[in-house]
C-alpha cells in the first residue's frame, strides 16, 4: 500500500497515522459505545488519511466530518462505525452502500463483508473513489456512478444496505433489494438540520420492521426517490 506512515504537521512535528488511528478508535469509537470487534478492527485498518484531501491529512483522526470534492463530506468516523455496527454484519455478506463519497466507508465495509457495491451520484467522486480503492487493493469494492435511490439491481438482493445521505423517506427500490432478514440503515428526515437514523429489517416478501436508532445529521440524498 502507498500509505505514508508519517507526515509533517505545519509545526514540523511528525504525525504517526497508525498510532493516531489506534487512538481514535479507542477514544472516539470504542469509548462511545461501539462494541462490535469486526467494526473496531476494520476501523483500525483503513488509512482514513488517504481518503481526505491532502491538505487536511493532519486532521484525518479528529473525529469529525471533513470536506471532500463536490461540496460533499467524508463522514465522521464515529458515525461510520455506528452505522456499520447497526447493519449487524457477521462477515462474508454482500453489502450495498449509497453515497460512496471518498470511498472511506466502503473500505471499512470491505474489511468485513465479502463484497461491497457502492453507488455515487457525482461522477468525479465516483471515479476518484474507484481509483483510490483499486490502488489500495480493496478489490472487493465495486463503484457505480448513478442514482443510488434506485439501488443497484444487477447485484441485488443484499444482506445489508447503508445510505450515507439523508432523505425524507426510505426509497422503495432499496427496500426491495434487501434479502429477507436483511437490514437497511438510513438517515430519514426532510429537515436538513437533523434526521433520525432508521434501521429497516425485511421480515418477509412484503413486511418490514422499522427502528429508530439515533439522531444524526447528513448531507442530502438527491435523486428520483430522494
Ligand atoms: N460514505 C462517504 C460519505 C459521503 S457523503 C464517505 O465515506 O466518504 C454522502 C455522499 O452521498 C455524497 O458523496 C453525495 O454525492 C452522495 N449522494 C447523495 N445522493 C445520492 C444518490 N441519490 N445516489 C448516490 N449518491 C448520492
Termini separation: 37 Å
Low-pLDDT runs of 5+ residues are none
CATH architectural arrangement: 3-Layer(aba) Sandwich
> How much helicity do the residues have?
25-40%
CATH superfamily: Vaccinia Virus protein VP39
Principal-axes shape call: globular
Q: From the helix content, strand content and strand pairing, which structural class follows? A: alpha/beta
The radius of gyration over CA amounts to: 17 Å
What's the quick description here?
By secondary structure, the protein is an alpha/beta fold. The chain has helices spanning about 15-30, 35-45, 75-85, 105-110, 125-135, 170-175, and strands at about 5-10, 15, 65, 75, 95-100, 115-120, 140-145, 160-165, 180-190, 195-205, 205-215.
Question: What are the main properties of this structure?
Answer:
globular; 26% helix; two-stranded antiparallel ribbon; 226 residues; alpha/beta; Rossmann fold; binds S-adenosyl-L-homocysteine
